[in-house]
Amino acid sequence: MTLQHRLAVAIIIALGLMWVWGAPPDSPKPAPTPQGEVNLRGLFVGATAAEDAAVLAALCDEIASEIEWDGQQAEPFMKTGVAFDQLRTRARVARMRGESIGDRQPRVREAFDDYLTQRVGILGGAVDAEQRAKWVASYRELAEACRNALTR
Predict the structure, then answer these.
(1) Tell me, what DSSP letter sits at residue 72?
(2) What's the domain count of the chain?
(3) Which H or E run contains 143?
(4) Is residue 139 part of a domain?
(5) Among the listed residues 145, 134, 142, the one whose alpha carbon sits nearest the alpha carbon of residue 60
(6) Contact 59, 95 (CB under 8 A)
(7) CA-angle at 85, arms to 82 and 88, nearest 5°
(8) Does the structure show a pLDDT above 90 at 86?
(9) pLDDT digits over 87-100, tens only?
(10) How many whole angstroms separate alpha carbon 65 and alpha carbon 71?
(11) 3-class secondary structure, 80
C-alpha cells in the first residue's frame, strides 16, 4: 500500500470518527397520538395492510354517510341497529365480493367489534336521532383510525 493510499484511508477513518463523535444523538420521536378514541396502529399486517386500511376507511366513510343521509329523509328506511349492521354487511359483500378483510386482519376486526360494542352497544332495536348520530360518528371515527393506522 502506497503512502497516498494510507493517507486516504487515514483521512476517511478520521472523517468517520469525527462524524460519529460530532453527530448529536438521535432522540426518539414519540408516535403521533391518534385523534380519536380508537387506535388501529400496528393492527393492520401483511402484504395487503395498506390496501385493507384504505378500503376499510372508504367503506366506513360510506356507511356513515348512508346512515346520516337516510336519517334526513322524511321516512328513513333504516330504523334499527340491525338495519345499520345489515348495511355494513351488504356494503362489504358488494365492495369485497364476499371477501373478508376481517379474515386477513383479525386484530382489526376485533378492534372494530370492541369499539362498536362500546360506542353503540349490541341492541339491534329501534334507534332515535341521538343513537343514529352515535352510529354515524362511530363509523367516521373508524374511518379516520384506518387512515391513521399506517401513518408515521
Answers:
(1) T
(2) 1
(3) helix 129-148
(4) yes
(5) 142
(6) yes
(7) 155
(8) no
(9) 888 887 777 777 78
(10) 10
(11) strand
Residue 136: give the domain boundaries.
49-148
pTM for this prediction: 0.73
> For the purposes of burial, counting CB atoms within 10 Å of the CB of 133, is it exposed (0-12), middle (13-18) or buried (19 or more)?
middle
> What does the pLDDT average to over 30-49?
77
Residue 79 located in a structural domain: yes
Let me know if residue 11 belongs to a domain.
Answer: no
What is the model's pLDDT at position 8?
57
The CA distance from 109 to 111, in Å, is 5
Given a cut of 50, whether residue 33 has pLDDT beyond it is no
Per-residue pLDDT at 57 exceeds 60: yes
* Model pLDDT for residues 3-32, shown as the tens digit of each residue: 665 655 566 666 665 655 665 555 555 444
In a domain, 22, yes or no: no
Torsional sign, CA 58, 95, 72, 124: negative
Q: And the C-alpha cell for 12?
A: 476517511
Q: What cell does 78 get?
A: 333504516
What cell does 36 get? Answer: 380519536
